[in-house]
UniProtKB/TrEMBL annotation:
It catalyses: alpha-maltose 1-phosphate + [(1->4)-alpha-D-glucosyl](n) = [(1->4)-alpha-D-glucosyl](n+2) + phosphate. This is Alpha-1,4-glucan:maltose-1-phosphate maltosyltransferase. Its EC number is 2.4.99.16. The active site is at 794 (nucleophile), 823 (proton donor). The record marks 881 as: Transition state stabilizer. Maltosyltransferase that uses maltose 1-phosphate (M1P) as the sugar donor to elongate linear or branched alpha-(1->4)-glucans. Is involved in a branched alpha-glucan biosynthetic pathway from trehalose, together with TreS, Mak and GlgB. The gene is glgE. The keyword Glycosyltransferase applies. Homodimer. Gene3D superfamilies: Glycosidases, Golgi alpha-mannosidase II, Immunoglobulins, Phosphotransferase system, lactose/cellobiose-type IIA subunit. It comes from the Bacteria. Residues 610-959 form the Glycosyl hydrolase family 13 catalytic domain. PANTHER family: ALPHA-1,4-GLUCAN:MALTOSE-1-PHOSPHATE MALTOSYLTRANSFERASE, GLYCOSYL HYDROLASE FAMILY 13 CATALYTIC DOMAIN-CONTAINING PROTEIN.
Length: 1063
């Protein structure tokens, strides 16, 4: 008996919407065997057909009259027989059979085996009498709402089992929202448990986020996306991709072109290929698209995986689609316009790119980019191969001392340079680093300058020329592609040949006798020719050809140059050769390179969610485990968070254990503070046994990775009195004169359950305790080796700066991709110094900035140099330690206000769980939570009424879709005409992505505002026109004039728009 023929992954569907062809050729048609052979040759491995069951008379609907019968060669046969016949025809061609199934409808008069008693009912309105009803809706009954009727699911299960046994490889179900997810899951479990498990697909096109969320757990193996209706630029495509991918792999088919044309068809085919986990072309696509075979074959071997990322698509910029692939990353550039060229906006794309180099091989024929510009409706593909991180320590070049001559050229006011180059500037891979400097020299001679840069483990430099701007300010830029230490240097010199060309042209126009000038130029050419010969430079031929054009008279006198000779001396090709052969007189070289540190993009853009694993059990009062946290991952990811931050997970000490609400007397069963690290079960490299051990933690790390998240751990250098180090290394701690331990203090606070280590020895030598330093470093490396790449560091400002600089350098020497977040609520200079010596990110004063003036001042401070070059602000709205006064009294609107400020104000934001539930109960008079989770278990109803989950989700979606919000840079304040309304813009450097936000700071009263959008940044007059996309209402409108009047209400205290010239 035939069984289902499984297709080789990934699936490439041919959707024959008109059904299977007959066994022999019909007039104007194609026989089945011929079609199947052609499909296999064109790269397909699966055929999707409408179910061939018997339909109602004159029915235009696919609803069955008899779901168990079909016509085969003109005779009525059991459906299973038809399936076996077709599956056997497909098998020799490597094609699997899939059927399109309708089970929420049946034809009027359906047989009893198809429509059991009470299963279906007529629609509320009679389609025959309602002209609004489509022809397909007439003569159709619909599944009764509510619980499934008895026998319905069993009948379909038995039917599909029979079909699967006869060769059906899978089924595509229409209207999946018509059945509850548990019923789908029951059907899927039964079918997947059979001998030949079929794949269950669902047409999810056009489903709302709520309808998709209701399908969680349904057990589908693939969901069809809404890509056919995409306009080649709208952000909803990536948002839907994320929702679909959380449930099942994504099945994509090409966007439908309004006007068939070759270039547009090419663009559509490759868009589908990049977006798909399973790829599908229907019969019309296969007939009209020129690249179907090429797209299928590339897709089959590309190894695409992971979510779809999207950027650009406005104001003459290409839309960029990104997916991970076997080579590393595939980037498809699309011109969304059918009439105008478009360019790649690398500044908007940079936050999305991994550390990688561009590959010249492996790009499909016809898709290799020729330039950064695409023709109308064009497309191009970039393939990126991961680069190895830089693990060599930064070099420091010896200071040049070439005498006074080397200082004739002045280079000063170099930027970016942190403290003159003492500390590295921070960036991410592919970010454009503009380097500026004042460069000048005495006299009127022209100068040349170049920027040199390299990774710290490279011996050769890359170079790019500087361009001179106003007032002797020069600029060049570079884009590093690897993670780790880099450096740049500036070279500048007297450009003798350019000075000669300039003077020659000026004198020629003035009618001056140029014989001597020409002779000077020839001397320079001869000197360059000698250098070219010594270096075997290919420019030697160019120089000889030029020199041969000049001669002297018989008496030795110079001959006036001809116009042709002068043109030859002024030629650009000659100038290029002379630049390459320049001996660079008076050359200036940076005395020492300027350091740059390149972090992975998550250092600049991430959304953090903090939770206590021990509180995640669904059972009240039961200690949670890592497996309980795994159960919450879909929920956290659905809200848009990509970093899961855990407070310390180590064993908790018993001695002096804290009780509830920080009580000094712990009751039996009190769990204590996780910051009292260490017990008989171990210290910083051990796990609290009740959480599930190291195996449970590793399962969590892997599960988080599968959900597109990473786990961040708390690194707290403090110990409980029970920590094993106290017995093994008593000298690592501080002791009082009476021989008792010195407990941690922050006068007048005293932490009776923790003690601090002592980093230096006694007063006699004050030597560092190197064994302790190494032990702490090894703790970090232990967790790095177990999959952790991000650490939130507790109170680093209370530990020595030299220790942190050493530890971070030690870790980065082996793992440059590790991120360190500084939890240093301390003085500004210390906060900034920690960032300079190596901390990747930092908590900020944002938590206490509530008024408009102080918010504006702080946003400007952290978004512009010098701070922005080394300090990355992480806007946490709350922490387990900090229940801000603003949130204690502002109700739900206050939580919305702070979420919007944090999510839109910085590329990094975070929240401690409970914020989404608007938890604010506080200890009287303190910024601390009542019944703090630091000292007890707190189980919650994560969907409690009044939550702001939907608002947080939308904010994170907006952040993910807009590169302007993925950095702390790019801020422009806007006027609002109201001291209780903050308005600001965030943009990428080239303004390819531009966001305007207006946020009320009043959680109690409506606030009216007159927002002045910065039209001047778009080159528009105040009365000009822009297109504004309302990112909350998800609609667009033209804005004529820069002023918009609006009122912000407490229940919706913010608005967000994406502005562009043309939409």
């Amino acid at each position: 008996m035939p069984t289902a023929h499984a297709a080789h992954a990934p699936l490439r569907f041919y959707h024959a919407r008109g059904g299977a062809p007959g066994p022999s050729s019909a007039p104007g048609g194609e026989s089945g065997p011929a079609l199947y052979a052609r499909l296999r040759q064109r790269g397909f491995n699966a055929l999707l057909l409408p179910a061939p069951w018997l339909l109602g008379p004159d029915s235009l609907s696919a609803a069955p009259l008899d779901a168990d019968s079909a016509l085969l060669a003109g005779r009525r046969v059991p459906m299973a027989e038809w399936i076996g016949h077709v599956a056997d025809q497909l098998a020799p061609h490597g094609l699997a059979l899939y059927l399109d199934i309708v089970l929420d409808r049946c034809a009027v008069g359906a047989v009893s085996g198809t429509a059991g008693p009470g299963w279906y009912q007529p629609p509320p309105e009679n389609p025959a009498r309602d002209p609004r009803m489509s022809a397909e809706a007439r003569g159709v009954l619909h599944l009764r709402p509510g619980p499934l009727p008895p026998g319905f699911l069993q009948a379909w299960r038995e039917r599909l089992e029979r079909w699967t046994e006869r060769g059906a490889a899978g089924y595509a179900f229409q209207a999946p929202e018509c059945l509850p997810a548990p019923d789908w899951a029951e059907l899927a479990a039964a079918l997947h448990g059979g001998r030949a498990a079929p794949q269950l697909l669902a047409w999810a096109q056009g489903l709302t986020p709520e309808s998709l969320a209701a399908l969680r757990g349904a057990g589908f193996d693939g969901l069809f996306s809404s890509l056919p209706w995409w306009d080649f630029k709208s952000a909803w495509l990536a948002e839907e991709d994320g929702r679909l991918r959380a449930l099942a792999p994504v099945i994509a088919s090409p966007p439908h072109a309004d006007t068939p044309r070759g270039a547009a068809d090419k663009r559509a085919a490759w868009t589908a290929a990049l977006c798909a986990d399973f790829l599908m072309f229907d019969d019309q696509d296969e007939a009209r698209l020129p690249d179907v075979a090429a797209a299928n074959h590339w897709f089959a071997q590309a190894g695409l995986r992971g979510p779809l990322r999207l950027a650009g698509g406005r104001d003459g910029h290409c839309t960029m689609l990104l997916r991970a692939c076997a080579a590393g990353t595939a980037v498809l550039a699309l011109n969304p316009s059918d009439t105008a060229e478009a360019s790649v906006d690398w500044d908007a794309l940079a936050p999305l790119l991994p550390p990688a180099d561009f590959l010249s091989e492996g790009v499909p024929d016809g898709l290799a980019p020729q330039t950064d510009h695409l023709a109308p409706a064009g497309c191009a593909m970039f393939l990126l191969e991961p680069t190895h991180p830089v693990r060599e320590p930064s070099r420091h070049a010896a200071r040049r001392m070439d005498g006074a001559a080397s200082q004739r050229i002045v280079v000063e006011q170099v930027s970016p340079a942190v403290d003159g180059g003492a500390f590295p500037v921070k960036c991410i891979p592919h970010e454009r680093i503009p380097v500026c400097a004042d460069i000048y020299m005495d006299g009127h001679e022209l100068l040349a300058a170049e920027l040199r840069w390299r990774a710290a483990d490279e011996t050769s430099w890359r170079a790019t020329p500087f361009a001179r701007g106003l007032n002797d300010r020069w600029e060049a830029a570079f884009r590093p592609r690897r993670i780790g230490p880099h450096e740049f240097a500036i070279h500048a010199w007297f450009d003798a040949w350019q000075t000669f060309r300039h003077d020659l042209e000026v004198k020629r126009q003035a009618g001056v006798d140029l014989r001597l000038e020409v002779e000077e130029g020839l001397l320079m050419l001869r000197a360059a020719l000698a250098r070219a010969r010594n270096a075997s430079h290919p420019g030697a031929m160019t120089l000889r050809n030029i020199l041969q054009r000049f001669s002297k008279s018989a008496e030795g006198e110079t001959v006036p140059p001809t116009p042709e000779q002068l043109s030859a001396l002024l030629d650009e090709d000659l100038a290029s050769t002379m630049r390459e052969l320049d001996d660079r007189p008076f050359e200036y070289v940076s005395p020492a390179p300027y350091p740059v540190w390149v972090d992975r993009s998550q250092a600049c853009h991430a959304s953090w969610y903090e939770l206590f694993p021990r509180s995640q059990s669904a059972q009240s009062g039961q200690h949670g485990t890592f497996d309980d946290v795994i159960g919450r991952l879909p929920d956290v990811r659905e809200m848009g968070f990509d970093v899961l931050y855990l407070p310390p997970i180590h064993p908790i000490g018993q001695r002096n254990r804290k009780g509830r609400n920080n009580s000094l007397d712990a009751a039996p069963g009190d769990v204590g503070s996780p910051y009292a690290i260490g017990s008989a079960e171990g210290g910083h490299d051990a796990i609290e046994p009740l959480l599930g051990g190291l195996d449970g933690f590793l399962r969590l790390v892997e599960a988080a990775r599968a959900h597109g998240m990473e786990v961040a751990l708390d690194f707290a250098i403090q110990c409980s009195p029970d920590h094993p180090w106290l017995a093994r290394h008593a000298d690592w701690f501080s002791w009082r004169p009476d021989g008792t331990l010195r407990y941690a203090e922050n006068p007048p606070k005293k932490y009776q359950d923790i003690v601090n280590v002592a980093f230096y020895g006694a007063a006699a030598r004050r030597a560092r305790k190197l064994a302790l330093w190494r032990a702490l470093r090894d703790v970090v490396l232990f967790w790095v080796h177990h999959g952790v790449r991000t650490f939130r560091v507790d109170n680093p400002h209370t530990k020595p700066l030299p220790f942190w600089q050493w530890l971070i350098a030690e870790v980065h020497g082996q793992h440059p991709d590790v991120i360190f977040l500084s939890e240093a609520f301390t003085r500004p200079k210390m906060m900034y110094r920690l960032a300079k010596i190596g901390f990747t990110q930092s908590y900020t004063y944002f938590t206490w900035r509530n008024d408009k003036a102080e918010l504006e001042a702080y946003l400007e401070e952290v978004s512009t140099p010098p701070a922005a070059d080394f300090f990355r602000p992480h806007f946490f709205v709350n922490t387990p330690d900090i229940n801000p006064y603003f949130l204690q009294s502002s109700g739900r609107p206050g939580f919305l206000i702070r979420a919007a400020l944090a999510a839109l104000g910085s590329g990094l934001w975070g929240m401690y769980s409970g914020f989404e539930l608007c938890e604010s109960a506080a200890l009287p008079g303190k910024e601390e939570y009542l019944d703090s989770e630091k000292y007890e278990l707190r189980q919650r109803d994560w969907f409690a009424p009044g939550n702001i989950r939907a608002e947080i989700t939308r904010l994170n979606q907006i952040r993910r879709a807009n590169p302007a919000l993925q950095s702390h840079r790019g801020l422009t304040l806007a006027r609002s005409g109201n001291d209780r309304v903050l308005a600001f813009c965030k943009s990428t450097p080239g303004r390819g992505n531009f966001i305007l936000a207006a946020i009320s700071l009043d959680p109690f009263q409506p606030q009216a505002a007159r927002i002045e959008a910065p039209f001047w940044l778009f080159g528009q007059a105040d009365t000009g026109r822009l297109v504004a996309e309302d990112l909350l209402a998800e609609r667009s409108e033209p804005w004529q004039g820069q002023t918009r009047e609006l009122t912000l209400h407490p229940d919706q205290p913010y608005r967000v728009w994406r502005l562009s010239l043309h939409g």
